[in-house]
Amino acid sequence: MGNGFGHVPSNGWEHYRHPEITPGPNEKPTFDTDLGFPNGRKERVMVATEEEMRSAKLALKDRDYCAHLLLEFRSCRRENWPWVVKCQHEKHAYLNCQYDDFLLRMKEYERERRLRVRQQRQGIEAA
Amino acid sequence: MSLIRPLTISRLCIKNHGILYTAVRNHWNKDFKPGEFPKTPEQRALAAEKYQLVSEDYKPYPNDGSGLGDYPDLPMESGESKDPFYPWDNPELKRNFNEPLHADVDMIGEDRYDVTARHRVPVWLQYVQFFAWMGGAFVLYYIADKMKWFLAAAEKQYPRNGKHYTFEPKEE
User: Fold this and answer.
1) Residue B56 resides in a domain
2) If I label B130, which of B114, B138, B152, B171 is the partner at 20 to 30 A Cα–Cα?
3) What are the pLDDT digits (tens) for A38-93?
């Protein structure tokens, strides 16, 4: 897929023209997670515990796999206020984590799409 | 103090206090009320004289229960369309002294609606332009709504929604 935003309009078009092989936005992957990985895949690790997030009153939308970095960043801001620029490292770490998280979602999307294409191709070959 | 003295209560109670006397004696609602609808030619002539119109120009509103009585049906003419260079007695309102007012004078003043306006684009064409524009926009929206742009990303992964995996194979 394209690197910039070039895929954004083409996604819309492909989703309209070929809905059977093009997943929509924010869809849950449908195939077996270990398909194509003989030993399976490494599981994502959640560092922050439920109690930590609850005591920090973290919004539900922030309770993702980067929550521990967000907690660190927020506590750093609180300790260093108003010299929050001292937390640049924590902020950078958190944003990088979010970037990688989104990258994983894009990979999941592309995996889903390719598996659907493969399934369709196999169906045609079998028929 | 001399400015305040004329406004004391005792002064207001005097019969020949001009403002109060006029307001109380001459400006009751009954004085604004038009007369009966004129039925005979004599009544018409009297009504025309009352409104200071020549009898050819006098034409009452139809007697259909609107309550306008003998009030004259004057031509609908907005302040905008009156000649600004004519030496009006009252140039602000473009009105001459004792000139009868239109029944809808509160609507057709210069600061209100212009009923005599001549549009550069006729009104039917304005409607066509409006619906063509809105309809065109709706058609474009209807077409584009079927193929919404989106970033190629699967759902956001939250630990509370079950297990998620990286793309690194497990080493065993």
Assistant:
1) no
2) B114
3) 999 999 999 999 999 999 999 999 999 999 999 999 999 999 999 999 999 999 99
Q: Do A104 and B147 touch (CB under 8 A)?
A: no
The domain in which residue B143 lies consists of 123-161
Lookup: tokens for A116: 């659907």
- What is the crossing angle of helices A88-126 and A67-80, to 10°? 160
Question: Which residue ranges make up each domain of chain A?
Answer: 7-41+50-126
- Give the ipTM: 0.88
Please give the Cα distance from A117 to A43 (Å, whole number): 26
pLDDT tens track for B142-158: 999 999 999 999 999 99
Tokens representing B56 are: 């050819």
A20: Cβ contacts below 8 Å, ≥ 6 apart: A116, A120
Contact (CB<8Å) B165/A43: yes
For residue B101 the two structure tokens come to 């007012």
Residue B35 and residue B70 in contact, taking contact as beta carbons nearer than 8 Å:
yes
CB contacts of A27 in chain B (<8 Å) are 154-155
